[in-house]
Structures are given as structure tokens and as C-alpha cells.
Amino acid sequence: MNNLPKKFVFLYYLINLPVIDTTTGKKIGRIFDLAATLKEMYPKVIGLIMRNKKNKKIYLPWSSVKMMVEDKGIFIENFSAVAQETFNPAANEILLKETFWDKQIVDIHGSKVVRVNDLHLLKEGLGLWVVHMDIGITGLLRRLGVSKIFEYLIKLVSSYEVADRIISWKYVQPINGPIGTDALSLKVHHSRLAELHPADIADILIDLGTEERLNILKSMDKVTAANTIQELPFKIRLQVAELLDQKLLSEIISEMAIDEAVDLFSQMPNKKMNTLLTRLPPEKVTQILNLLGHANDIAGSIMNTDFICIRQTMTAGEALEKTKKESNRKKESYYIYVLDDSNSLVGVVTLQQLLTISPEKVISEFMRKRIAKVKIKTKIKDVAEVFYKYDFTVVPVIDKLGKIQGIITMKDAFESVFHQIRKETEQTQ
Amino acid sequence: MKLWDKIKEKPLMRNLIIFLAVLGPGIVTGSVDNDAGGITTYSVAGAIFGYKLLWTLIPSFIILAVVQEMNARMGIVTGKGLADLIRENFGVKITFFIFLGLLAADIGNTATEFAGVAGSMDIFGVSKYISVPITALAVWILVVKGNYKTTERIFLLFSFCLLSYIVSAILARPNWSQIGTSFIKPTMHINKEYLGMVLGIVGTTIAPWMQFYMQSAVIEKRIKIEDYKFVVVDVIIGCIATVVVAFFIIVACAATLHQNGIVINEARDAAVALKPFAGIFASQLFAFGLFVASVFSATILPLATAFYVCEAFGFEAGINKKINEAPQFYALFTFIILVSAIIILIPNAPLIAITIWSQIINAMLLPVVLISMITMVNNKKIMGKYTNNNFQNTVGWLTTVILIVLTIMLIVSPLISYLHKFFIKN
Questions:
Q1: How far is A283 from chain B (nearest CA, A)?
Q2: What percentage of residues in chain A have a pLDDT greater than 90?
Q3: How do residues B305-340 score in pLDDT, each as one tens digit?
Q4: How far is A387 from chain B (nearest CA, A)?
Q5: Chain A residue with minimum CA distance to B227
Q6: Which chain B residue shows the shortest CA-CA distance from A241?
Q7: Interatomic CA distance for residues A102 and A97, integer angstroms
């Protein structure tokens, strides 16, 4: 008897392989699925589920496998001692057929969603590891049971060989989680997505079903989740906001840029918004409510209320210290706005200035006093013009009394101006 | 701006706005449903049986509404297309069977649509050797080079053209009291022709590909589950539109052709035959309706079919992708249009045989698709708390069983008569 000679084997050829009891030498059933653990670099097969003649499913640990023989089957030792009625997956244990066959995965390398036709396993001794996912036409034909005929036909007419389309496990991000998923096991599970830019993750999420989309968002850290949600088309964003549980949603929202959060809130039913607001930190709530009050075509509606400001009496060193402290929470920290005693905006310094100037210098001595600014009521279109005219990436927004209320980044301004265009491109997708 | 916000605050207005945003999938699906094949069936039914078969529109409506509601619900809850769900839950072999059948049937159906184009343009004196290639090319360019969203909106507008059948019917001066009677006291005849026609009407209202189309259309809209009730309204409006158009086609043909004992085989015959009884205007309106319906369906059918096949087998698909990004998708789309147009252009093409065979394949697929659907819509893992309730299940399964019985009969009866004719001829 010769062991399976090939080093690699497709899952298709293992499923339905007879399971044979070594003590009696008789066939006791057929392989139904394989269990594997995701703890190692490549998923390692740790057990099998077989279906006996009465169609009952039985779990056998892989350690009881004594031999694998091609076309004949898998030989099990001590069958009655090791057989288990049910398979209770531990954290990060999955069933290969159930999780992957016919299901979608994310191809991290190509940054897109693909459908798995078959699994490619590496065989070493009795050990099996999942190394590739087969997503090509050859896998499809194999599953239909016609690959041999097809290969024969192809060879008959040409010397062309149909290449397998496979993805290495390194670039595979499963979407369907392990059975009985909890957030913790999913976290490990979905970690590869973090290598992608949030905009790319969003593109992938668009292609997925509702549940998969939520599972992935749930498994990501809050900041990535917030960044990803911001990149989703608006309708999907609302859908997601509706389906995520309130606690998680409020946590994600508190990581979002204020203007994006306001966008989201403005389309929510009042009741839902109010319950969410009770979960957010009070200072965020005031900011959000303030912005929500503005009509949606003026600067006030798109401004971000996270910015850094300092007093004109501070020294450069003190200012730098304050900037350092706040900049990890604030998004824009290149421009630092200078206020007088009555909190009016009187100037601006850049981070570069603070870093290069001697620390004892007082801010008012070197700050730039002429600053381009817009009013809360300034139309968004005119805000965009300010950016067009001056060489700025961020512009401050002031109220009637000249007090700074927020900032607008170039990106936000352009996004709003091209809102119509963006909406159209989203619709054609 | 302020005023607009105030308007949006009012619950009634708010609901209306949401409804208008959600509106579409059901109505478009309902309109595509009244394609060349449908119009043919209704015209023939009206011409042969007069008002007698009008009652069948009521069960047709119920079946259509129940099935489409399930599709809409599955689409909203899972966010996945029906092809995706079938592949994931029933494996590659059943999927392969369904899609091979779907492809074959839809090529046949698309050919029927081009036959509709040929027939209707013939009424206006345009030869099919001109009308069919131009339409095929126009449809191809529209989808491959054009903006599909705009296209769909134009079609939605077009679907109002189907209302031209109402005018045609009224011009034919039908007997309203007889129409009323046919609904209140439906007559049953147990003979092959009558039963065959009943099956034909029910069968033409519900085709397998529609389920796939409906579900994707709902997903495209990104509807929230809380707005689900509006989707149900959309589905019902779509079904009503389908049935109303069918009603007026039957009435138009019954009031004129049946009254005068004229027998027809094709929808274009109906348009021609209408002329002496209801005037040239009614005749041309009828032909125009047929043309619009045919072009509409000739666009959507190949597109939808190519899309689902690719979705199920994991090829890139979608009209927003470039040809080299989704080669299989565009190849399939082009192939379906090309083959169906060529079939129609072959002189003496066996049109009736094609129609019958695509109906038979459709009929075989329908139970498979319906059983898959009901199984999935009752699966808690897939649908969560939105599984069917008892009422929906009863109606759903009853529909499926009735449809299976009906379709078996539908397959058997024309097949026998077709084979009968075939062997006698030779």
C-alpha cells in the first residue's frame, strides 16, 4: 500500500473518502468535513467529521488517523474510544468545508472579494495544512466532477494547460467566522484586513452581505471601524448604523470625526439619535448638537470642532507642549490657532514654526496675524473658493463675535462641493 | 431649506419621501414581467376564451406578490443576491444545474423579445432585418457604453407606456358586465385547451429569472430593514401593474377578436387584427406597447442572466466594471444578445418551438428555485428573526406545490401536442 504520493491534495479529493476502522478493517463511514485550527501560520487539520451509514455525524480527532491511502480511505485506530458525538470547536477552530467551500473570502493581495471553489492542502506525513484557496475555473470543474474529462478535451485540441487560480493563505481573509463566533476569536480572524487602507476595506465591505459586513466591522478596532464607515457610501453607512448594536455604534461614533458623525446623525430618526447621544461623552454631544443645528449648505455644517488653540501670551515651548498633549486626540495639528483673552481668533502658527523657533519666544511675536477665515454662515461653495485662492489645507471658522468655532479641511470642503458628483458616482456603482 | 426640513418632520411626508426613495424594484420587475411572451399569452387567451380566463389573474397576483415579497425580504436582510445564497447553501452542483437552465431559458426568452421587436416594428412597416439588428446593437451599446442608471430610469418611464393597453382596450368597447361576471362566477372547463391556457397565464406571470432580478434590485437600493414595509407596498404596486396590464390586454383581445371568432398565434397578430374593430390608433398603440415591452426585456434579461451566472461562479460582474475587468460578464452578455438576435433573423426560424422549449426549461427551474428560496427564507442562520411566519409559509408552500403541479401539466400538455404535430408532419 502506498500513501498518497502527492504532496499537495485538494479538499475535494478528501471529502467523501471512506473512513476505515483498523481493528475490523471495515468501512464505517465517509468523511463529511475537516476541522482545523487557525492558531498556526497555516490552518492545521485537527480532526474530521464523518457520516456513518445511518447518516449520523461523528467527530474524530486527527490523532486517531493512522494512515491515508489514495482511493481507499482514511484508517482510524481505536475508533470506539475516540469517537465523539459532537464537535465543540474551541476558539479559532473551524470546519474547512463549511467555512470555505462556495463561500466568499477577501483576497488581501488583490484587495477584492472572491469565491472559493476548493482548498489546496499540503500533506506531510499524516499532517495536513491549508496552504491555498482555489478560486479558478479548474476548481469549479473539479467540484462538478468533470475536471478529468475537461482536461482530456483541452489536451485533445491543444497543448494549452489550464492554470489553477490559487491564492496563498497568507493573503486570505476569511469572512465567515468560526462556528459560534464571538468578537474575540473574530478579532484574530480578521486581523489581515487591517493591512488595507480604510477606503479599500470599505470597497470590500460594499461587495459583501449584510451580516458579513457587520461581523467584520465588529471585529475591527474602533478607530479603523470608524475610518472604514466614513468611507462607505452613505446608504450603506445608514444601514450599518441601524444594524450595529447601540453600545458598539456609540463607541465607533466617538472615534469618528465630528463632521462625519453629524452627517450620520442628520439622517437618523430622532429617537435613535437621542439614545445614541446619551452614550457619547458630553462634550461630543454639545459639538454634535451645535453642528446639527446648521443648515447643510453653510460652512458650519461641515466644520470639524476638533482643533488646537493656544493663547497669544504663551511661549513657543508652552504651545508646543500643549500641542503635543492634544494632538493625539485631534486630527488636524499642523495649524495651531491663537486666541486673545476674549477668546477671539487673532492669529495662527504652524507646527513647523513651533518646532524650529526658540522655545522662549512669545507667540504673539511671530504668529501670522492675517489669516484667511470663513464665517459659520459662509456658503460651502465660497469656502471652496477660499481654498482655491490661498495655499491652505485647513481654514478656521469663526462666529459673529470673531470666536473660532471649528475648522474645515480641504478634503471636507471639496467633498461637500462635489457632493452631487460623489452621490452620482455612488449611484452608478 | 428650512421649509424642506419642516416638511420632512411631518410623519406622512417623511413616509412619502422614504417610499419614493424605495420605490422601483417591484415596479420594474412587474413591468419586465409583461414582456413579449406575456403579451402573446394574454392576447391569445383573450382571443380564444374571451373574458372567461380573467379570473386567473387573481391567483397570479397572489403568487407573484408572495414570491416577490420573500425575495425582497431576503435581499434586505442578507444583502446578498439569490445566486450567492443558493451557491452558499446548496453547493456547486445545484447551482450549476439552475444556471445552465437559466442561461438556456433566457436565451430562448430573449429570442422571444426580439421576435416581439420584429413583430411590432413590422406593423409600422419596418422589416425585421432592419429592426432586430438595430435594436440588438442599441441594447448592447446602451449597457456596455452607456450609463445603466439612466437607462433604468428611462425604462421606468417606459413602463408607463404599457398603460397604452388600457387605451387600446377601452377603444375596443368591451362588455363590462360580462367582465364583472367572469370574476364573480368564474367558469371552469376541464379540457386540454382551457387548462393549458390557465397554466400559460400563471406560468408567464412568474419566471425564475425574476426572482434573481428582484432580489438584486432591492439590494442595489440599500434599503434599511425598518423601511421594509415600503418595499412591500412597492412589490404590491408592481404586481398590480403587471396584473392590470394583463387584464387590459385580455380585455382588448376578448372584446374584438373573440367576439368575431378570430384566432391568433402571436402578439403581432393581435395588433393587426385589432385594426378593423378598434381602429388604426388602437392597433398601433398595441404594437407600440409590444415594442417597448420587448426592448425593455431584451435589455434586462441578458444583463440579468450574465450577472447572476457570474455572481454564482465567482467571476467579476457589473456594468460599472470595464470589459477587461469583467471579461466573462461582458462575453456572456454579448453572447446572449447575439445568439437570440441571430435566431430571429434566420428565415423560417422555429419560433414556436423555441418559445415552448424555453417555457419548459423555465417550468422545470421554477420549482427548484422556489424550494431553495423557501428553505432559505426559513433558515434562522440566514434570516435571523425575519423568517417566514405561518401565513407566509402556508401561502409559499401552497404556491410551490400548485406551481409544480401546474408546471408539470404545462410541460406535458404542449410537449404532447408539439410532438404530436411533429410526428404527423413527418
A1: 26
A2: 2
A3: 998 888 888 887 777 777 887 888 899 999 999 999
A4: 26
A5: A239
A6: B224
A7: 9
- Interface predicted TM-score (ipTM) of this complex, two decimals: 0.71
Residue B79 contacts A, CB cutoff 8 Å: yes
**pLDDT at position A421 over 60:** no
| A295 with B147: Cβ contact below 8 A | no
Percent of chain A with pLDDT over 70: 88
Question: Do A428 and B225 lie within an 8 Å CB cutoff?
Answer: no
Please indicate if any CB of chain B lies within 8 Å of the CB of A154: no
Q: Inter-chain contact A235–B226, Cβ cutoff 8 Å?
A: no
Identify the pLDDT of residue B376. Answer: 92
The alpha carbon of residue B16 is apart from the nearest alpha carbon of chain A, in Å, by 15
The pLDDT, as a whole number, for residue B337 is 95
Q: Is B147 on the interface with A (CB under 8 A)?
A: yes
pLDDT of amino acid A299:
77
pTM of the model: 0.74
* B79 to A208: CB separation less than 8 angstroms, yes or no: yes
Chain B contact for A429 (CB, 8 A cutoff):
yes
Nearest CA in chain A to B21: A235
B331 CB near a chain A CB, below 8 Å? Answer: no
Which chain A residue has the Cα nearest residue B320? A429
Of B1, B79, B88, the CB nearest to A102: B88
Segment A116-145, tens digit of pLDDT: 899 999 888 888 999 888 888 888 888 888
Which candidate in B219, B222, B309, B316 is best for mutational testing of the A interface (most A CBs within 10 A)?
Answer: B222
Beta bridge partners of A34: A48
pLDDT for residue A4? 46
A417 touches B at CB < 8 Å = no
Judged by CB atoms closer than 8 Å, whether chains meet at B79 and A243 is answered as no
- Closest to A140 (Cβ–Cβ): which among B79, B313, B320? B313
Asked if pLDDT for residue A36 goes beyond 80, the answer is yes
Q: Which residues of A touch B148 (CB under 8 A)?
A: 428
Rounded to whole angstroms, how far apart are CA atoms A246 and A256?
A: 15
Can you give chain A as a three-state secondary structure string? CCECCCCEEEHHHHCCCEEEECCCCEEEEEEEEEEEECCCCCCEEEEEEEEECCCCEEEEEHHHEEEEECCCEEEECCHHHHCECCCCCCCCEEEHHHHHCCCEEEECCCCEEEECCEEEEEEECCEEEEEEEECCHHHHHHHCCCHHHHHHHHHHHCCCCCCCCEEEHHHEEECCCCCCCCHHHHHHHCHHHHHCCHHHHHHHHHCCCHHHHHHHHHHCCHHHHHHHHHHCCHHHHHHHHHHCCHHHHHHHHHHCCHHHHHHHHHCCCHHHHHHHHHHCCHHHHHHHHHHHCCCCCEHHHHCECCCCEEECCCEHHHHHHHHHHHHCCCCCCCEEEEECCCCEEEEEEEHHHHHHCCCCCEHHHHCECCCCCEECCCEHHHHHHHHHHCCCCEEEEECCCCEEEEEEEHHHHHHHHCHHHHHHHHHHC
Residues from chain A contacting residue B92 (CB–CB below 8 Å): 101-102, 117, 140, 143-144
Q: Write out pLDDT tens, residues A363-414.
A: 888 888 888 888 888 887 788 778 877 777 888 888 888 888 888 888 777 7
The pLDDT, as a whole number, for residue B341 is: 93
Amino acid symbol at A190: H
- Comparing CA positions, the residue from B40, B376, B389, B381 lying closest to residue B200 is B40
Asked whether the predicted pLDDT for residue A83 surpasses 60, the reply is yes
Q: What is the mean pLDDT of chain A?
A: 80
Residue B269 has a pLDDT of 81
The stretches in chain B having pLDDT less than 70 are 1-23, 147-149, 151-152, 155, 159, 190-192, 406-407, 410-411, 413-415, 417-426
